[in-house]
Amino acid sequence: MNTVNQTYQEEVQQHHEAPVEYVQVDLREYIAVLVEHKKLIGFLALAGFCIAVLYGFLATPEYSANALVQVEDEKQTSLSALQDISGIFEGKNSIETEIQII
Length: 102
Hints:
The structure is a single chain. By secondary structure, this protein is an all-alpha fold. It has a domain at 23-59. Helices cover 67% and strands 0% of the residues. It is built from five helices and no strands.
């Protein structure tokens, strides 16, 4: 049992004392690989974009919402009476709005 612990401790010491090698990264090599495969990268990007566009058009929407707000004045003034008359010429009056709400 003692020899097993001693061997383990020796192994741990060897790993801790091992010199650390620093790997120098050359960005030119990475850029060269990207340039070399630029057609493949472009094709995959275009394919992903096309798939995303198709999904956007063909997928059923998960939710949709519509809102209609009707604001009513409590008191009738001469100005609001004129606005009601102008509403006739615009084609949308309060009756149409109330029908849409129902």
